[in-house]
Design brief:
The protein has 174 residues and is mostly helical. It has one domain. Helices cover 77% and strands 0% of the residues. The chain contains 5 helices and no strands. Helix 3 runs antiparallel to helix 5. The radius of gyration is 39 Å and the shape is rod-shaped.
């Protein structure tokens, strides 16, 4: 029976797993990278989506309920002027936000699924390692038993030859 760790797939998996662990150990993530990871993780989460939904609805209601006039200039002119901003409407902004949220949520789900799959693969590889080690130990024990059994059979054969030689020289009593 062949060792499952001698297959190309197992060797390649173990090699990639070792490289990944080494890279993770060596990588010292900067504050920026940690912030980016945190941001991408929370982008697709419900609290973030609800926050932006409340913000957009609130902003719309401020003008729809005429709390602030649509001609008001409480924001700086460089921020509200058409020379600086693209003339985007609210619908485009909302659609862009939610499409981004949906993509982030899908990426988060995919990451969780991939993490689960990789953990499962590592568990199976670990179980295969343990099984292979137990199988190797059992084969070694069986080999020792076979050698011991062979030695005993040889001793029996030698003793039988000695008994036969000793009894062949004597004739039966008559």
């Amino acid at each position: 029976m062949t060792d499952p760790h001698d297959t190309p797939h197992a060797k390649r998996f173990e090699h990639h797993a070792q490289l990944q662990e080494k890279e993770s150990a060596e990588r010292k993530e900067s504050l920026f990278l940690r912030f980016c990871d945190w941001t991408s993780e929370v982008m697709g989460e419900p609290p973030n989506i609800i926050f932006w939904l409340i913000l957009v609805v609130g902003w719309t209601l401020i003008f729809a309920l005429k709390i602030v006039s649509s001609n008001a200039n409480f924001l700086p002119s460089w921020f509200t002027g058409t020379a600086y901003n693209f003339p985007l409407n609210l619908l485009t902004t909302v659609a862009e936000l939610f499409i981004g949220f949906l993509v982030a949520a899908a990426a988060n789900r995919a990451q969780r699924i991939l993490t689960t799959i990789i953990d499962g693969i590592r568990t199976v590889v670990d179980q295969l390692d343990a099984h292979t080690q137990a199988h190797t130990a059992l084969l070694n024990a069986n080999s020792e038993l076979l050698q011991s059994n062979t030695a005993l059979i040889q001793q029996i054969h030698e003793l039988t030859k000695e008994i036969h030689a000793a009894t062949a020289g004597k004739s039966p009593a008559g």
